[in-house]
Amino acid sequence: MCGIVGVVSNAPVNQLIYDALLLLQHRGQDAAGIVTQQERKFFMHKAKGMVKDVFRTRNMRSLLGNCGLGQVRYPTAGNAFSEEEAQPFYVNAPFGIVLVHNGNLTNAHALKAELFNTDHRHINTESDSEVLLNVLAHEIEKTTRGLPLQPMDIFAAVRNVHKRVKGSYAVIALIAGHGVLAFRDPYGIRPLCMGKNGDGNVMLASESVTLEGSSFQFERNVDPGEAVFVDLQGHVHAQQCAEAPQLSPCIFEFVYLARPDSVMDGISVYQARLNLGETLAKRVISTVPPSEIDVVIPIPESSRPSAAQLAQLLGLPYREGFVKNRYVGRTFIMPGQGVRKKSVRQKLNVIASEFKGRNVLLVDDSIVRGTTSKEIVQMARDAGARKVYLASAAPPVRFPNVYGIDMPTSSELVAHNRTVEQIREIIGCDALIYQDVDGMKKAIGSLSNKLAGFDASCFDGIYVTGDISSDDIERLNEKRVGGEESLEDTSRLALPNHAD
Q: pTM higher than 0.90 for the full model?
């Protein structure tokens, strides 16, 4: 998952893009980058790290111009530890193009071979985003044939990109001397929206909260398969470029990834999580009588709306029992030392009085590997809980994700090929309650009548693009980020608070 933003303005955009990336920081903490344009010249700075650490005053002063792009990256493919794989990516022909990308291409390997053998383009990193940029550049070159660039040429190029590229992609690209292009895959798996401010400036971003926090008025979402081109005067041109678009967004955006104050494809993320709590309450009743539960406690942060709604419907007290440490630093490799994997206890601390002598129902947004859940259950027991029940607002995560979420391989998923009872034994709770897949889809889907469905592949194993085989999953898993540094904890508890 990544966060992307693009701006066309009549004033310098460096500070605006920086502030926008802070609002998207929850979508990626591995690397950040900004590129701006002044008089057809690009100015770029990118590096590994959080936004506040990547950009210093000297870097900001060098980012000149009234239009630009930014990205925060959470890597899912390629080399997570290479500065070269931070975005934006750049090619000098045609025109000069820089690009930021949120998503994951499922046919990047085949495209890379095509680019080298047929299109005669060189890819210098392992990033699928660089592959996507070169496909786009090649298609723009074909449609213009040396002539001046027109919006119709751009849309023709995007149509060809859709025909060649498979997987998920929300893209914002800056074409030197012309303007900003944004487009979304034909299924709308990854989010993208646009808005304007009172001065007529245009912003495109992954989440609506980015627009609102930057004093832009949300106008609409970019439709699946649609391309939007904003010229340097701020005029917006748009055209549907896919043959059979359908809106099937990633359901994990609503479960966990997006900020609760965002509205994505017409659905309030906060309301979606309230609805998940409502349907989860019915599942709890069928497993554990509410009379046997003394208190409902969320596992910070994303589960809070679901936990609060569940507690209200069951008539149970809702309490905060865990305090999250926002300032846990990274683990450094010191001479003579290996990497120390940080304990969950460094990120969460219990309020013992909320557990002692009580039967507690812990609510989490989802359970992936199960290792964090196991440690949290033990923390509750150590704090004096009589019984510890665990409820997940999402169904069991049984399958890998191939569309841009760093979801582990099947063997690392605690729910893969296991029954709920087997998972419960591994985690060590007294009862384990999961949301069911249909209930999750109905809870969120009821909030919009524009959806064709969801990509819920990590829960149901159905990949919405319809072109994913077990061989594809194995190949994509080989491209997952790795290396010695991956022993450092990258669990969701290590990430910044979404509410910040």
A: yes
